[in-house]
Write a structure and sequence with these properties.
There is one protein chain. About 35% of the residues lie in helices and about 10% in strands. It is an alpha+beta fold. It has one domain. The strands form 3 sheets. It has a 3-stranded mixed beta sheet. Strand 6 and strand 7 form a beta hairpin. Helix 1 packs across helix 4. The longest helix has 19 residues. The model has no long low-confidence stretch (mean pLDDT about 90). The site of one iron/sulfur cluster has 11 residues, from loops.
């Protein structure tokens, strides 16, 4: 059933997300060093894991083109409200790295490390995850932790669990006079 969008006065489905006001700052070498240290530790833990390929979690679910576009638009407009907890570790652990290595068995530990380091954005949001760049997360879902892949805020969760993937959507990020509205996203 189509819903009336009270903010745009049409029958698009409204997707309400928050909006962070953090500021952009050039990437810090210190943060890059902390990420490397964290990854080296996780890669060492992976080395002593029993049967890492069997223990690797399954690849992230395919969201489908429309859901992927809506979530990407929402997360970029929101400026990554929920990414602050990512710090300099991005929730990456040996389980995630086991999954990455299982999907790309030709990569050795150093290549996996470089896969992540090469994705560090040139500028990031202060107080947010080290991979949180101007356009949102710089990691593809295949490289993100399961924590990141599984989490959706209330607005995106309502959209995904509502399973209405045929009605166009409009993202509304923030509140009051600071609210930003996306263009109409069509399935
Ligand atoms: S999941 Fe929600 S809160 Fe987190 S970045 Fe995306 S829109 Fe923002
Ligand atoms: S890895 Fe990406 S999705 Fe996860 S906390 Fe960092 S910026 Fe957010």
């Amino acid at each position: 059933m189509r819903r009336q969008n009270p903010d745009t006065d049409d029958d698009t489905q409204p997707i309400m997300v928050p909006r962070s006001e953090r500021l952009l700052a050039p990437a810090s070498a210190e943060r890059g060093r902390r990420l490397r240290k964290h990854l080296v530790k996780a890669l060492r833990a992976l080395r002593v894991m029993k049967a890492p390929t069997a223990a690797a979690p399954p690849p992230p679910a395919d969201l489908g083109a429309f859901v992927a576009r809506v979530t990407q638009t929402a997360c970029a407009m929101c400026n990554g409200w929920c990414c602050k907890g990512g710090g300099d570790h991005a929730y990456l652990d040996e389980q995630t790295l086991a999954r990455v290595r299982a999907e790309q068995p030709d990569l050795d530990a150093r290549a996996v490390l470089m896969l992540y380091v090469s994705r560090l954005p040139p500028a990031g949001y202060q107080g947010s995850c080290v991979f949180h760049g101007e356009q949102g997360c710089t990691l593809p879902r295949s490289l993100r932790s399961d924590v990141c892949n599984a989490y959706f805020c209330a607005g995106l969760d309502a959209f995904i669990t509502g399973e209405d993937f045929t009605t166009p959507a409009v993202v509304l990020a923030g509140e009051g006079g600071r609210m930003r509205t996306s263009r109409v996203l069509k399935p």
